[in-house]
Amino acid sequence: MSSSFQRYRRLRWLRRSSQTFFFLLFLYLLLQTNIDALDSPDAVPEISAPVELFLELDPLVAISTVITTHSLYRNLFLALIIIVGTLFLGRFFCGWMCPMGTINQMVAAVRSGRMQGKQRLEQNRWKPYQRWKYGVLAFMLGAALLGSTQIGLLDPIALLTRSMALILLPAYNVFTHDIYGWSLHADLGPLSILLTGLSWVTHALLIRAETVVFDQTFLILLIFVAILLANRFITRFWCRGICPLGALLGLLSKTSIYGLEKHASLCTDCNKCALNCQGGDNPQPGYTWHQTDCHLCMNCVASCPEAGIDFRFFPKREETTQKVSLTRRAVLSTAGAGMLAVPVLRAATHPGRTPDPTLVRPPGSLPEKEFLSRCIRCGECMNVCPNNALHPTLLQAGAEGIWSPMLMPRIGYCEPTCVLCSQVCPTGAIDELTEAEKAWVPEAGKAETAGPPLRIGTAFYDLGRCLPWAMAKECIVCEEWCPTTPKAIYFEEVEVQNRDGDYLYLKRPHVDPALCVGCGACTYACPVKGAPAIYITAVGETRNTQNRILLEQDRGTSGKRR
Fold it and tell me: In this predicted model, what pLDDT tens digit does every residue of 491-504 receive, in sequence order?
């Protein structure tokens, strides 16, 4: 075998090692937002790892954010690393770093190993459907031009983060939790000890001890499973035909100085290079190599025993095309469709109007229109929430805001000392806060907070369900759970007569809207089953000066611009 053949085989193993490393790094960072952030009741939640690193490296996230907001938030400049590398090397991110690409490749490998050579060879030829991804990219960027960030719905890093954070990790958590509970009571003799220890390791050491659930996730699961199943029919179909990030990197790779050079005189037409091609880019001599579709997986050169193809800098390009095979008319029409989609999405629920009262956004969220221009629905804020309070919307924010975060206080409340969601947001949809800026609890040694609290909503009572009001029964749970100082819930002592004619003294609760921050602790703790007797609405939120109860209510700030 030639030395170049051996060299490329080693390079292919290096690529596989790189894929494994970055996939494990992605999982590690994701787990850092999944562990219990509160070690004790008095602890301040914090995360030390750069959990949003992959999203900050994503060029599509950076470019779409710049288009919608005309600014570059925080660490999104890190995307320049991928952009510059692609300009010189080609789509190395797709073949060497992308965790979504790695999963697709693993699933496709199972199917490819069972396919006949002729069928597998035909599948790996370049096909016209591989142009679809450029249309998807144009559509998403067209929507971004009118201030609507929809790119996160199909961006591979945001999609994988959302799918794993909201579905796969919680499902794994529930499964291992149930197995661990079953193993404690199973009568399997000596195997019980081994099973209990193994299930404890797989559950307690990797995932947070508390089982979490997320609402409205079935559609997210359906889309993710469909992407994986597509690989059973077409190798890396998502990467080849749909992925908008792959399309962007393909466009950037047109200028790359590193590429494939073909030596027809050495080729024996064994077609081994095409049999293992991940990008479907026609690497074999005699066919036009599509440079913008190559993932740099190195499978083709590592499979060629005759050195008939070779990767090198400044290659000869007699059998190479750098075109994306998409007409200008198609680009303009799909971009125009993306722009037209924005007013259509906003026709029913415009972000500038009074929002759905149940749509309570996380603390630090920008005004709704700006929020939707930045939020990429990655799910990091929901995954990091220690109380499982944040969940993806369905249509509460309209079709434009699908899967963006909202507070569901019946499941979990916003922890007074927690600002993790603002720290992990990669695009600034949730502006970064400190505990002092949130101001929900007094600073150490001070009776009151330094400034007005950041409000996300206001609590209201349903008097027909509240025990002291509707049934003359004692209950002070909501006041006990209220975290503000002084408490936003106070009591009115009244004398009431029960049906037996006896007189009772009751404490009937009221909400002071000037003190309520909308954390949802009262709703979470309300002992009334089903619909709670006290609920939270977005009325009074700091970020929207038009959504007020009291004219004199302090206006605060609507989010710092970055």
Answer: 999 888 877 788 88
